[in-house]
Amino acid sequence: MINRRGFGKVLGLGTGTAAVSLAGLQGRQGGGTDLESASAASRTTSSAAPNAPTVTPGVHAGFPRLKQIRAGLLDIGYAELGPAHRPAVICLHGWPYDIHSYVDVAPLLAQEGYRVIVPYLRGHGTTRFLSDRTFRNAQQSAIALDVIALMDALKIEKAVLAGFDWGSRTADIVAALWPERCKALVSVSGYLITNRKANLDPIAAQAEHTWWYQYYFATERGRLAMEDKTRRHDLTRFVWDTVSPTWDFDDATFERTAAAFDNPDYGAVVIHNYRWRLSLADGERRYDGLEKRLADRPFIEVPTITLDPERDPFTAPGGGTSYRDRFTGKYEHRTLKGIGHNLPQEAPTAFAQAVIDVDGF
């Protein structure tokens, strides 16, 4: 069951003093990918963190046998690698992806002695709601509480949280509202906590175009497309192709992930997530207190590395400067050249290295 503090305890957040610790990873990532810091002048070198072994993306086709555990409102499916009693890392996927975004990252971290947990988010893969009566809610605080519930069920008091897309947002929220559960944070695209009031304002035309599917999902046509297996398959494949323009993945790689979209709640969860962000769908009142805190854009005080994929159309210009002020603890920003949206699967060595490095901050 969810620990009661998961629903009712949100700590006060101070501003702190920003401290930048930049480890510098030139030459660690294979495949010719360059790594740049957004603040090279502030760079310091850490000799404590080991180098992650270089791995060719796609070397692993899948995980060992998946596990299931009841946690909060869900029966959560997850992969687990590494020693059971070692420090935990929880890797969180995005949309339209699944746990296979970490199929190469997880073995690297397990090899370094971490206990690696990679859960299917609600509505994905083998994760199921325990009750048919539960609202298929995908507002941000509900998904974050799923992670707290999972940690409670697995008896993990504190973990390094790492994610991209929905996973970044979820990890950001846990780090902001429950810092005692988050040892450190790796967040692709930085600070992604949703401010629904701000989302009511139009943005630049090119950025609006990039978010085409969000507006498509606001329509009945979009909902029907997500409920239809063939249309859903083609739509999500198109998203993969457009947001990761340099990633040379094969059909089998996509199909392994697309199998997770056959979850009976997938369409409802995805549609609610994007409609809720635009204030076109309501959340649940039990989460109102958390959403009010998140609307205030809380600071994140835990040690953090943010990663920007250069070829991701959602990456904001400025090398992380647009969200730098939200992180008030030890901090580093890295830009990965030539990498698209699905960063952990496209650049697993760089992602794993960020986890190892931030754990040593």
Task: Describe the secondary structure blueprint for this structure.
Blueprint: H1 4-8, E1 19-20, E2 35-37, E3 67-71, E4 74-81, E5 88-92, H2 105-111, E6 115-119, E7 128-129, H3 140-153, E8 159-163, H4 166-177, E9 182-188, H5 205-210, H6 212-216, H7 220-227, H8 229-243, H9 251-258, H10 266-277, H11 288-295, E10 304-309, E11 330-336, H12 343-346, H13 348-359
Parallel strand pairs: 1-11, 5-6, 5-8, 8-9, 9-10, 10-11
Antiparallel strand pairs: 2-11, 3-4, 4-6, 4-7
Structural features, described:
This protein has 361 residues and is α/β, with parallel strands linked by helices. The chain contains 13 helices and 11 strands. Strands 1, 2, 3, 4, 5, 6, 7, 8, 9, 10 and 11 form an 11-stranded mixed sheet that branches. It is globular. The protein starts with a helix and ends with a helix.
Core attributes:
about 350 residues; 11-stranded mixed β-sheet; globular; 13 helices; disordered N terminus; alpha/beta
Element-level helix/strand string: HEEEEEHEEHEHEHHHHHHHEEHH
Distance between the termini: 32 Å
The helicity comes to 25-40%
Low-confidence stretches: 1-47
Mean of pLDDT: 89
Structural class: alpha/beta
The major beta sheet can be summarized as: 11 strands, mixed
| Count of distinct strands | 11
- As a percent range, the share of strand residues is 15-25%
Could you write a compact summary of the structure shown?
With 361 residues, the chain is α/β, with parallel strands linked by helices. 32% of the residues lie in helices and 15% in strands.
